[in-house]
Amino acid sequence: MDTLASLFAILDATLRVSAPLILAAMAGLYSERSGIVDISLEGKMLASAFAAGAVAALSGSAWPALGAGIMVGIALGLVHGFACITHRGNQVVSGLAINILASGLTVVLGIAWFSQGGQTPSLASEARFMPLELPFADAAQVIPIIGPFYHDVISGHNFLVYVAWLAVLATWWVVYRTRFGLRLRAVGENPLAVDTAGLSVSGLRYRAVIICGALAGVAGTYLSIAQNAAFVREMTAGQGYIALAALIFGKWKPLPAMLACLMFGFLDALAIRLQGVELPLIGEVPVQAIQALPYVLTVILLAGFIGRAIAPKAVGIPYLKER
Amino acid sequence: MNTSSIALPAWMEIGLIPVLNIIMALFFAGLIMLAIGVNPLQAVGIMINGAFGYDEAIGYTLYYTTNFIFTGLAVAVAFHASLFNIGGEGQAYIGGLGVGLVFLLLDKYLPAVLLIPIGIMAAGLFGAAWAFIPAWLQAHRGSHIVITTIMFNFIAASIMVYLLVNVLIKPGQMSPESRVFDESAWLPFMHEFLGWFGVVVTRTPLNLSLFFALFCCFGVWIYIWRTRWGYELRTAGHSEHAARYAGIKPKTVVISAMCVSGALAGFVAVNEIMGVHHRLLLNFTAGYGFTGIAVSLMGRNHPVGIIMASLLFGVLYQGGAELAFEIPKITREMVVAIQGLIILFSGALALMLRPWVVKVYLKFKSADTLAPA
Fold it and tell me: Cβ A322–B32 below 8 Å, yes or no?
C-alpha cells in the first residue's frame, strides 16, 4: 500500500502543477486557432500573477484578485491584438515584447509599491483559494483503491484546479460544437474565406485574444494566490513556454493539449521525487534532464519524428483586407 | 485609406519614423516612472550622467554595448534571411561552454597568442553548433525556428546547470563555477591596453572584445551586402521562390545564416568569459540575447544602426544601474521594462505611426506644390 500512497502523492502533485499549464494551454489554443501566434503566455501569466498577488494583499480577498488577474490578462491580450491585428505587426516580436515588459514591470512595480524585493506581501488563507474537500471524500475512503484515489488525488485541490478541468471541456465544446468555434477555426485556417462569407476577421481574432488573455489571467492568478501565498519575481519560470509546448504537443486540440500538460506536470512532480534517488540500471537521473524533457520532446515532435504537429494554416500571417 | 503604398522620402523611413517609435517607448517609460512617483526628467539626468559622466561610467557603458553589438548582429543576420532567431541567449550560453571547455583543457599549456584565437573560435563554433540544430530542423524537417530556438534556450540552460553543478565545478567549492583560467587566457582589459600606451583610465570590465565587436560589424556588413553569400541570403529572405528559381538553395541559406547568427551570439562569451569573468559560471548571459532582438529592431538590421542601438542600450543598462543606486524606488528591472516597450514600439508597432506621418507629409507636399503657382 506504501507504493500506492506514494503514487497517489505524485499524481496529486501532478494535478497541482499541471493546472496552470492547462489553463495557459487553453488560452493559447484560442489565440493560435484564430491565427495569432502567442508566445506571450508567459508574460500574461506573470503580470496576472502580480496583479492578483497585489490585489489579494490589499483587499484581503481572493475574488477581486481573480478579477484583477483576468483584467490584466485581457489588457495584455488587447495590446497583443492591437499590434498584431490592427497594425499587422510581427506576432512573435509583439509576444516577446509583452514577455519582457511583464518581466521588468512586475519587479519595478512590486518594489515601488511593496518594498519587499519584488515580492508581494504574504497572504493569509482568507485571501487565497484554499484546498476544497469534495463531497463524500472521507466517506469514500472505505472503497479500496478508488476511495483513496478520490480522496487523495481528485479531492483536496483549490477551486482553480477544477476551473482548469472545466476550461478544457468548455474549450472543446466551444471550439468543436458552437458556431463561434467553427468560425474561430476557419479564421485560423483561411481568413479570406471567412472574410468572403461576410464575417469580420479582426472581430473574431480580437475575441480570441480576449479569451486567451482571460484564461492566461486565471493561470497567473493560480500561481500567486492559489498554489503559492504571494507573488514572487519571475515566478512563472518558463511555465508559459511549457504550456505553449504542450499546446503544440497536443496538436492545437483541447484534450490532447491537456494530456500533454498532465504529462509535463507529471515529469515535474517526478523530478522532485527522484532528486537524489538511485534508480536500478540507470542510476541517479539528473533533475535537469527531466526538467529539459518537455522542451526536448517538443523539438522532436515538431521535427516530425513522433507524429506530426501541423499548425493552423494562417497562424502568424497578418490578414490584409484590401488589395 | 491604406497608406502603405505611398512612398516617403528615405530620411523619413529610416530616420524619422524609428526615432518617433523610440520616443513613444520612452514616453510610456516616463509614465511608468510617474506611476511609481519618480520624476522622469530627473531620472534621465541621472542616467546620462551615470552612463557618460566620468571615465569609469563610460567604460561600463561600452562594456554593455559590446554584448549588445554581438547579439544585435546575430539577430540581424537571421532577420535578413527572414528567420527569427530567438535563441541568442542559448547560443551565447553554449558559446561560453565552448570557451570554458577549451580553456580548462589547454590554458596551462599554450601561450596567450594561441589561446585567445582558439577561445574566440570555440565561442563561435559552439554558438553556431547550437544554432545549427534548429536551422537543420527548420530546413529539412519543417519545424518552426522560433519555437525550436525558444526550446533550445531552455535546453541550454538545463545543460549548463547540470555541467556546472556536477562536472565543471571547482572541487571543494559551493557555488557552481569552474576554476579561474590561467592568466594567459585572459583577454586584456581596456585599462591595461591603454596603460601600455601610457594612458591611465579607471579599471572597468571593458576589454578588447569591443574592438572585435566593431570588427564583426564590419564583417557582417561585407557579408550581407558585398558577398555572393549575402546576396543569396537576402534573396532567399525576400522570396524563397525567386531564390530557388535563381539557383539558390534556400535550405543551405537557412543553415548558413543561422550558423553565422549563432556564432555571433556565441561571441558574447568572448566579452563575458574571456574578458571579464575568466571562469565559467551560471547565467552570465543575463538576458543579453533577448536584448539583441530590441537592438536589431531599433538598428533596422544594419551594422551602423546596431552600433547606435547598442550604445543606447549600453547607456540604459549602465545608467539604469546608477539610477537604481541613486533612487531606491527604482530598480534595474526598469531597464527591462523599457526594453520591452522598445521592442513593442520599434518592432511590433513599427508601422503604427506611419499613416500619420504620410498624412502630414502629403499636406506639406501639396502646400509646396501649390505655393509657386
Answer: no
- Of B213, B313, B301, the closest CA to residue B257 belongs to B301
Instruction: Pick the closest to residue A220 from A239, A248, A204, A202 (CA basis).
Output: A239
Question: Would A317 be classed as within a structural domain?
Answer: no
Q: Which of B155, B294, B330 lies closest to A296 in CB terms?
A: B155
Which letter does DSSP use for residue A284 in this model? E
- ipTM comes to 0.90
CATH number at residue A9: 1.10.3470
- What are the residue ranges spanned by the domains of chain B? 38-366
User: How many structural domains does chain A have?
Assistant: 1
Helix (H, G, I), strand (E, B) or coil at B258: helix
- Amino acid (1-letter code) at residue A141: Q
Give the closest of B32, B162, B352 to A108, CB-based: B32
Any domain includes A105: yes
DSSP state letters, B275-299: III-S-BTTTTTTHHHHHHHHHHHT
Buried b (16+ CB within 10 A) or exposed e, A45-60: bbbbbbbbbbbbbbee
Domain B38-366 has CATH 3.10.620: no
Q: Give the model's pLDDT for residue B373.
A: 46
Out of B293, B339, B347, whose CB is closest to A104?
Answer: B339
Residues 111-170 in B contacting A (C-alpha not used; CB under 8 Å): 137, 141-144, 146-148, 150-152, 154-155, 158-159, 161-162, 166
Contacts of B84 in chain A (CB under 8 A): 90, 92-93
- H/E stretch holding A279 reads strand A278-279
With beta carbons less than 8 A apart as the criterion, state whether B46 and B319 touch. Answer: yes
Q: Do A302 and B290 touch (CB under 8 A)?
A: no
Nearest to B28 by CA among B255, B341, B289: B341
Answer with the residue of higher pLDDT: B182 or A284.
B182
| Range(s) of the domain holding residue A13 | 2-121+157-302
User: What would the pLDDT profile of A170-228 be if each residue is shown by its tens digit?
Assistant: 999 999 999 999 999 999 999 999 999 999 999 999 999 999 999 999 999 999 999 99
**In a mutagenesis test of the A interface, which of B136, B141, B147 is the best target, namely the one with the most A β-carbons within 10 Å?**
B147
